[in-house]
Amino acid sequence: MSASTVTNETKPKMDAVVEDFKRKLSNVRTGRATVGLLDTVMVDYYGTPTPLSQMASVAVPEPQMLTIQPWDISQVTAVEKAIIAANLGMNPSNDGKVIRLPVPALNEERRKQLAKQVHEIAEEHRIAVRNVRHASNDLLKKMLKDKLISEDDERTGLDEVQKLTNTFVGKIDELAKHKEQDIMSV
């Protein structure tokens, strides 16, 4: 095992952290309707908690409206109850076949709360990237101690891991900044 192997293994781990960050950001509400808002909704489908996306088609016909059409019409009320229980701050209405979910405009206070939530999620993921860096650095130091690599290789490896860390933290900061701009724009 060499120092370059350690840095090559570090990149996919940091990539995974950024991908997870993108998924978490998609669940944070902006002023517009997105299908990702309902990713966390679990419906009691004959006693089994089932993700809404696995039992209904979700569409965005207008910027402020979501429509949910369960594949099993008998589950309309269960889906409606699950949306209310998910505490998304939205009130569903149905016509027996389709559930309409108007997305209310965000007030200033709620926008600030969501921006703060984005900051918290971003910080969690920055810490996760730093933890990956820490693990890689520890591995490089252990390899040096066990005389598997030279001091120069260790120093080069540490520098490469730090460059990767800076790159991925920068990506997280950029994504958080864009999401915050989306939230704060009226």
How far apart are the first and last residues' alpha carbons, in Å? 53 Å
Mean pLDDT: 88
Q: How many discrete domains?
A: 2
Biggest sheet record: 4 strands, antiparallel
Structural class: alpha+beta
Poorly predicted sequence stretches spanning 5 or more consecutive residues: none
Helical percentage: 55-70%
CATH homologous superfamily heading of the largest domain: Ribosome-recycling factor
CATH topology of the largest domain: Topoisomerase I, Chain A, domain 4
CATH class of the largest domain: Mainly Alpha
**Number of helical elements:** 4
Oligomer: single chain
Label the CATH architecture of the largest domain.
Answer: Orthogonal Bundle
The strand count comes to 6
Main sheet: strand order? 3-4-6-5
How would you describe what is shown here?
Helix 1 (3-26) runs parallel beside helix 4 (151-184). It contains four helices and six strands. By secondary structure, the chain is an alpha+beta fold. The strands form two sheets. The chain has a four-stranded antiparallel beta sheet, with helices on one face. The chain folds into two domains: 3-27 and 107-184, Orthogonal Bundle (Topoisomerase I, Chain A, domain 4), CATH 1.10.132.20; 35-102, Gyrase A, domain 2 (2-Layer Sandwich), CATH 3.30.1360.40. Strand 5 (93-94) and strand 6 (99-102) form a beta hairpin. The model has no long low-confidence stretch (mean pLDDT 88).
